[in-house]
Amino acid sequence: MEQSTISDDEFPPEKRLEAPNYRLIKAGIATIPDMETLQECVAYENAHQNRTQILRRLKWKAEELRENEE
Question: What's the CA gap between 50 and 66, in Å, rounded?
Answer without folding.
Answer: 23
